[in-house]
User: Which sequence fits this backbone?
């Protein structure tokens, strides 16, 4: 796997930067900077960096790869001197030196540094997506800052339809990864499309940046699932306090569906309905093993190899569950890998079963172990409001059959009969109409969200008003 319930996309460099900056160069040159680097024996790739200071004085920096459709990958740390900024990555580094009116940069990955000349730009180039919202807008976008329980400030946008009295408001909840309020991925902005579609139908929409991302403060790198639940809970409370709104509903994508379910249980009077898109309905361990099974099949493993790999995968995750402390956990995983036969080790490496959530860098993260321990079925059993659950038949991250069955079984076990569900044919994890559902199609498909999904969501939401 790459990311829990949502793999990192096409970048060959993994982002976990180191950033210790003082006021000066970054503050003086806030904005977007774009350059090109020539990959040896490969293409010329655009690379973007965005720098700004948040309202609370904290720094934000991100890297984007427009040619690969990847934007706003957050920087953890920056090293800053009077004339240079340096971003240290897991497998690379980017150093920027200020020269009169631009940055000269070096991308350091492998034996040959790649040079960059970065000029300031208003926007990064993006592929044309026909569903990206465009003017005129029959609604007002109101910027908000919402304070969560631990003092983190969430940057948000509330879209309120013109001329509507006390509209229903839908809060959009991210999937995994460093989600912006638009849930941007592969040049698509699915939450912007959802918000625009609902607002044009008279429904208010609130969307927010995940903690530690863009205008939201906090630490994304070390966040936990309970913190994300608390963040959404704070957003619900903020919407309750706005008397110009009426019913509150939650729409969660992928991992966000579990977060929405937990907050609906916590706020049974306030939350009137839940929409689950590509929602998870399996315990964390079973979900990750299923994802890895699909990954292995997608990448050429035959049935016997898949079963052989899953023995290792399950032992790997069970080792994480059995070791709460980081050092014993990493030591035990190294020992597990060392005990593999040469043939098994070759098989693991051939099918990349030592990457993503099966890598030691991910095993160090508290979030991975917490995800393995989590069980969305427990949350779904407590949800008593109306639920719409949609999954795509070509979803390779959250396979539809198993997860829809898990959600529906949990809702039935809790006595909830106010449930609508569908497995939508030929739709992938992002609800695009796809050929195979594979991740590398995301950026190639012009469609952001299939119209049938927008229609079903809107009909369900409007019915709850």
Assistant:
């Amino acid at each position: 796997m790459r990311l829990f319930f949502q793999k990192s996309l096409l970048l060959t460099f993994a982002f976990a930067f180191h950033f210790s900056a003082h006021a000066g160069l970054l503050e003086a040159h806030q904005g977007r900077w774009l350059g090109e680097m020539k990959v040896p024996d490969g293409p010329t790739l655009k690379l973007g960096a965005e720098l700004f200071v948040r309202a609370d004085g904290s720094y934000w920096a991100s890297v984007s790869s427009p040619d690969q459709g990847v934007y706003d990958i957050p920087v953890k740390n920056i090293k800053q001197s009077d004339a240079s900024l340096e971003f240290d990555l897991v497998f690379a580094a980017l150093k920027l030196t200020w020269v009169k009116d631009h940055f000269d940069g070096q991308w350091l990955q492998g034996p040959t540094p790649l040079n960059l000349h970065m000029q300031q730009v208003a926007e990064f180039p993006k592929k044309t997506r026909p569903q990206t919202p465009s003017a005129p807008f029959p609604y007002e976008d109101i910027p908000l800052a919402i304070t969560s329980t631990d003092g983190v400030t969430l940057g948000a946008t509330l879209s309120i339809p013109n001329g509507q009295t006390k509209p229903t408001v839908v809060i959009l909840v991210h999937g995994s990864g460093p989600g912006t309020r638009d849930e941007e991925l592969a040049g698509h902005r699915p939450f912007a499309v959802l918000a625009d579609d609902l607002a044009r139908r008279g429904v208010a929409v609130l969307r927010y940046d995940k903690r530690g991302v863009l205008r939201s403060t906090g630490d994304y790198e070390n966040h936990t699932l309970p913190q994300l639940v608390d963040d959404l809970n704070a957003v619900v409370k903020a919407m309750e306090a706005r008397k110009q709104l009426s019913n509150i509903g939650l729409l969660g994508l992928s991992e966000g569906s579990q977060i929405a379910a937990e907050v609906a249980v916590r706020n049974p009077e306030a939350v009137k309905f839940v929409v689950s898109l590509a929602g998870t309905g399996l315990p964390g361990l079973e979900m990750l093993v299923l994802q890895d099974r699909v990954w292995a099949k997608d990448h050429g493993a035959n049935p016997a190899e898949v079963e052989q790999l899953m023995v290792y995968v399950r032992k790997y995750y069970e080792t994480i569950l059995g070791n709460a402390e980081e050092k014993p956990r990493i030591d035990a995983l190294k020992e597990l890998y060392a005990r593999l036969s040469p043939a098994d080790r070759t098989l693991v490496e051939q099918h990349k079963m030592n990457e993503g959530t099966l890598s030691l860098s991910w095993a160090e993260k508290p979030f991975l172990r917490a995800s393995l321990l989590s069980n969305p079925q427990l949350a779904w059993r407590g949800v008593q409001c109306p639920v719409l659950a949609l999954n795509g038949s070509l979803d390779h991250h959250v396979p539809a059959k198993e997860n829809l069955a898990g959600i529906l079984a949990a809702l039935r076990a809790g006595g909830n009969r106010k449930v609508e569900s569908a497995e939508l044919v030929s739709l992938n994890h992002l609800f695009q109409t796809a050929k195979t559902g594979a991740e590398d199609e995301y950026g190639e498909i012009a469609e952001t969200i299939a119209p049938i999904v927008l229609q079903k969501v809107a009909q369900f939401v409007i019915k709850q008003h």
